[in-house]
Amino acid sequence: QFVDNEEPICFSGSAVLPDKDLVWSRCHVLPKCVVQFLPACLCKKQYLGVLSPPSPTQVFGHLNTMCLALEGSRLDQEEGRIKSARAYLHVCFKKIYNFLNESLQSNDSLIRVIRENLVHSPCILVNEDRLLLKPSQVTRSTDANPNLLPYMATLPSDFGSFKDLWECLQVSHTPSCQQYAHVLRELHRKTKGEVVEMVKDANHFVAIKEASTCLIHLLRIAEKESQSTGKESTAMCQKTDKLHNLFLPSNDVPESDRGNQLVRSQCSLILAQEVVFNNAFRLSHRIKDFAPIRYLVEWKDQEDGRHTRSAPRALGVRVLSRCVEKRPTENLTAMENRVWESLALVDRDDPPPPRVHKTIAQLHALLRSVSFAQGVKRVLFGEEIEFAKCKEKLKQLQDCTLTVVCTISTVLHFKQAGTQGTIEIPGSEADEIFYHKRGQDRQITFFLSNLAANRKTFFRSIAKEFTYLITGSSKMIEAMTDLCECSPEEVHKALDEADVPPLSSLTAVPQQ
């Protein structure tokens, strides 16, 4: 058969005109004047080898060819010819999607072949036909954030009916953690890890903000689900799978520095394992202009607009309370040589003031009492913290040693990621009310400073430290403060007045 340029083509392997949009880059298309003689007998088409209908292999091959040819094209321009091209592409791609969808409905064996050939190809037309994205960058939900273009988009409603094809290509029903992580990786590649400022590069800055906020929000939901069920759910595994090489927004200004406009107006993307989440404002206020610490920049959570005190574990970030430690500015031997043995009947030339002695003696008696263990259990119950997880730590606290020294001064040290070494943080020195250390046998020793003469300040500070030692969090500081100010006989009355719920049974309380 001859075509318009008079070059002969074979019937065999050629497509008919109605199928032109499905295969024109993969085979010849017979002209209309030829096709009109063939429909009378399908056998003739089979006999002549005409492809009608074409094979799925040829169709998705044609789709791949078109996508490669369009790579880098400026489909977002508004010139007349570009608009016409977009209109044609929409019709053409819709025909292809429909053909592949119908093929999958009648032949399950095509799933693997189509997936292998298209799942990594930018083959989905989105954003009003202005952009081609890979299936992993598209979601069928209408919740996709428009600020994340061109890295992620919603499937056009016009293509929504091809469900079998989208299932085959693993197009997500809703935005996933993996998609947001991909957006952040692409943004890191674009920005090269440099500082992005809202006033200078609003598009990239907003995309970083939206992607990281959505990712953290999804991980928080997944973590709550796993906590409520007591085990990691399938949804949690799916949300956190393949978050390798995750990049997160960071800067060197701690979240606690609310007055500094840099906290949320600029950031740079770095690997998650190098990011520090500020869960210890009591430490961060002592750290100024220390470049090795890069804090996580976290904007308002979408759920309630409040800033949270913990980062989802799946992010893989470090927390400030674990990568910064206090160390005395003098060695402990020198400190111990100046100790007032306030709890021992030892004659000394410089005994502690009676008020300090009384305070420490009261605390010592409280810690050793059964009432203290009962009170802590009440507080844990009120905060819905499982007592069994804290029982051993409570026992260690009750067995601690209390000593009083004249003064205590500490400096902060930063533990570098991936190393055993630490760096002293310049300008982080501060006087302390207390300092504690653990011996090789896990025995805790508290050094209490004479600066603790203000009882209210002392008990609030020591209650905060006790809370961290027992629970690893700050959830019960207020109730613990009330508890620490009591004598053993006053514990339950004080907790009643603080509206801490009583326990129906105290049989599981550790005994001394």
Please explain how this structure is put together.
This protein is α/β, with parallel strands linked by helices. 41% of the residues lie in helices and 12% in strands. It is built from 20 helices and 17 strands. The strands form 5 sheets. It has a 6-stranded mixed β-sheet. Helix 4 runs antiparallel to helix 5 (80-106) and helix 18 packs across helix 19. The protein is elongated.
Briefly summarize what is shown:
The chain has helices at 20-23, 32-35, 42-48, 56-70, 80-106, 110-118, 163-168, 177-191, 202-229, 234-240, 262-265, 281-284, 320-323, 332-336, 354-367, 370-382, 387-398, 455-471, 477-484, 491-497, and strands spanning 124-126, 131-133, 138-139, 153-154, 196-197, 247-251, 266-271, 275-277, 294-296, 318-319, 324-328, 401-405, 409-415, 422-424, 430-431, 434-438, 444-449. The protein has 512 residues and is α/β, with parallel strands linked by helices.
Q: Which radius of gyration do the C-alpha atoms yield?
A: 34 Å
Principal-axis shape equals elongated
Residue windows where pLDDT falls under 50 for at least 5 positions: 233-238, 340-352, 505-512
* CA-CA gap between termini: 101 Å
Number of strands: 17
Class based on secondary structure composition and strand pairing: alpha/beta
